[in-house]
Design brief:
It contains one helix and 21 strands. The protein is mainly β and 293 residues long. The strands form five sheets. Strands 1, 2, 3, 4, 5, 6, 7, 8, 9 and 10 form a ten-stranded antiparallel sheet that branches.
Amino acid sequence: PGFSASGWTNVSGTYPDQSYWSCGPVICDRDFAKVGYAPTDYVLYRSMFRFPSGSFAHGRVFDAVFSITLKHSSSCTAHNTELWHTGDIGAGTTWSTSAWYGIVTSNSSQACNGAAVRNEWAVGSLAQGIADSALGVLAVGLKAPKEDSTDYWKKFDPATAYLTVTYDLPPNTPDKVTVDSRPCGTGVNRAFVGLPGTPTLRARVTDPDGGSVTGRFELDRIRVDGTHVGTGDDLGQGSVPSGQAAQVTLAAGALDRGDTLVGSGDWDNDGHTDVLVRDTGGHLQLLPDDGTS
């Protein structure tokens, strides 16, 4: 998907405290996004842009490109224009207040004959960093590598500034989890399975991007001392449409696993007789009874 700039501005090293965010009563210097040292009035410019990034927050970015149309260059020889990661911009942004964190990449181009030229800069690593931090805004700036030379002077069309991002968002946490159609719970409301048993595990899986999702279940055993240990079972169902339930049915023996009976008693003090077993690893496992079987 692509995003148009939600805001842009010029800043000037010649007039470091002047804001160009909007037209004022005297100055309205927003016809072009200007970069470099102007050969006519000898004013130094940079241009800055902001894009919304909330839609790919926490996602995995495969590719990202900032692009804009070059309308004019002072030189007919292609010269570089640098793209920098910057701080966010607004009405108070000036040369003095703007933050330029570091160069990301550069692009070489020219448009001295007036023919519009589309320019692109790869910003995948920058977009991934913004996605990881979930800042909500990706801000960049264009500047000339040599700001004392009119050879690097360029004018861009700010209305064509565009950010294209190819990304994948992580699936949501599964919900509506059930064991043999019984939801999770505590005490007498907890899901239980009699032994031997082959219960069916279900959970709704959803993905913000839609499409298909793989639902995976992890089977752990809870020891008497409260620690958990995975059984190593690979439980999952692939190609589940987003919003539908993934389900797996445990094979016979998946729960008891050759346990040896140790004894019975009300081990959890709930008034019901429980069973204590020792697994093949020598650890005690508590199999509680809720009084319904």
